Amino acid sequence: MIVPERPQPPTVSDERTSLESWLDFHRATLALKCAGLDEAQLREASAPPSSMSLMGLVRHMADVERSWFRRCLAREEAGPIYYSDEDPDRDLEVTEADGWEEAYATWQAEIAAAREAARGRSLDDRGFAPHRNKEFDLRWIYMHMIEEYARHNGHADLIRERIDGATGA
């Protein structure tokens, strides 16, 4: 796994730069929380009864990136990657058969697709989220993604500390 440097968002910038910078900061934070761990550690559940793991969070965020940027904003027919109507938590629940390299590569591909979907669009451009039956502008999508990553990075902090005592980043 290539560990990205975590970009520091500028303290003074235009709205779009600020939103994109904070989203990239949080994406990199999740990658840093996973850095240096082996497959078993990345698969390790946080604490009973939760089955949440770092690998599960990465898989979940791949599906979230896809949902908001590709399905909603770009209006692509891109189905879920890991979960289904029959198994809605499958993205978060990993098994021995699930691998880190695939999860990480899929997540990075969805981030690249998200950037492409947003490229050249106005923050006022709207997409449609069928699962909520509403329109959302790109500004809202960026804000939601920042919130989603921030919340799950808090989970990642606790999971990582439980695995090897590492804190920070």
Automatic annotation (TrEMBL):
Pfam families referenced in this protein's UniProt entry, alphabetically: MST (PF04978)
InterPro entries the UniProt entry points to: DinB/YfiT-like, MST-like
SUPFAM superfamilies: DinB/YfiT-like putative metalloenzymes
Protein name: Mini-circle protein
Species of provenance: Streptomyces hiroshimensis
